[in-house]
Each structure stands twice: as structure tokens, then as C-alpha cells.
Amino acid sequence: MKLVQASLRDKIYSTYVEKLKVSVKLHCAAKEVFTGWLNDKTHAEFTGGSKAKTSPNEGGSFTAWDGYISGTNVEIFPYKKIIQKWRTTDFTPEDEDSVIELFFTFKDDHTLVTITHTNIPDGQAEGYKKGWKDHYFAYMKKYFDK
Predict the structure, then answer these.
(1) Does 9 map to a domain?
(2) Is 2 contained in some domain?
(3) How many CA atoms lie within 13 Å of 35's alpha carbon, on the beta-carbon side?
């Protein structure tokens, strides 16, 4: 955890932020999962059917899981890496956006997708780690490992 200090309405407060890293091995090309992440229909399908609105452009905004998740694409490196500002409806208005970095590494017959998630509000990292595994990776494995 990292201690962050900020000023809000002339009050000084301190909060801790957390980070996590999770990975999944998918039997598909990196290009498939990369383009799927940035495609409305595919993103919704590989997360169990929850509504998603994505953008394939840097600076473009997105929502997922019926609006529970929202954010902005910061940088896109085709078929290799996506960096997004990311938040959920669990964040308070004072919480800064968290940041996710998605890495897509093709090796042999599979793609390793690794998510590094930083700047998570204190106490929420374990919930998001479980969420990545249960609500993204489990569905992605079903979708791509056909």
C-alpha cells in the first residue's frame, strides 16, 4: 500500500491505496482477446453478457458490467498492451481513478493476459481481485477456450 495525501475543501486527509496483479491463460491469439476487449459485443460476451460500451481509441471512454465499471483508454499498443483509467460505482467521488494495465503475451498455443491494477481505494483490492477472476477470467476462458 502507498500513502496518498490530498487536500479536499481545505481539509487534509490521508488514504491508503492498493494494487494487485492477476493473470489468465487463454487458448487464442493475442489479437483476438485484445480486439475483443475494445469491442462492445465481444466484451459483453466474454464477461457473461453484461452490457459493455467500449472504444478502440486512446481517450475514448468505456463502461462495462451494466455501468458498474467506467473509465477512459489512456494508451493502446495494438495487440500488446492497453492502459485504462478505471473506476466502479463503489468508488467515492473523492477517490481518484484507478489504473489498469492489460498485457497480452502470445506464447506457443496460448495468450497470457495479465492485469496490473493500481491506485485502488483502501480495502477494495481483494474484492477486485476476486472480481477479475470470477467475472472476467472465468467467462473469458469459456469464450476463448471453445
Answers:
(1) no
(2) no
(3) 5
C-alpha cell of 36? 475483443
Secondary element (H or E) of residue 71: strand 69-77
On whether the CB atoms of residues 79 and 34 are closer than 8 A, the answer is: yes
Q: What is the spatial distance between Cα 60 and Cα 75, in angstroms, rounded to a whole number?
A: 10
Phi, psi of 40 (to 5 degrees): -50, -55
For residue 97, being part of any structural domain is answered with yes
Q: How far is CA 109 from the centre of its chain?
A: 24
Predicted confidence pLDDT, tens digits, the chain (146 residues): 444 444 444 344 445 689 999 999 999 999 999 999 999 999 999 888 889 999 999 999 999 999 999 999 999 999 999 999 999 999 999 999 999 999 999 999 999 999 999 999 999 999 999 999 999 999 999 999 87
Predicted TM-score (pTM) of this structure: 0.87
- Backbone dihedral region of 130: left (phi > 0), alpha (psi from -120 to 50 degrees) or beta? alpha
User: What residue numbers bound the domain in which 121 lies?
Assistant: 18-144
Q: How many domains does the chain have?
A: 1
* H or E, element range at 4: strand 2-8
Written as one letter, the residue type at 98 is S
